[in-house]
Description:
Elements: E1 3-11, H1 15-34, E2 38-44, E3 52-59, H2 62-71, H3 77-89, E4 90-99
Antiparallel strand pairs: 1-3, 1-4, 2-3
Helix pairs in contact: 1-3
Amino acid sequence: MSSYMLAQLQLKYGFANLARYEAAMVTIRELFEAQGISLVAGTVTQVGPLYEAFNLWEIEDQGHLERALNAMTLGDPRALEAMGELDATVEHEQTRFLGSLAFAGSANSA
């Protein structure tokens, strides 16, 4: 059974903020992937609340994110710059930890 983390983020309004968010997430993705956290999907709403982003990450278990954050070199200038950009472009973030259901099979088998 796979475990996932779903991050739901309300971005500040505007295409410029969306572009800044996407650029920062390139670095965040690299940092997470170096810790074994895989991005399954990164999306933004096209209908509904504007500039709402969803990132689905595959993780080992609920403690994986905490272990990964503790292992990251957050003093890395790239990490600091990316986190600063996220602070400037994200209004609100909500995180959920999810488990897969048996009928869904493996996300990588499709």
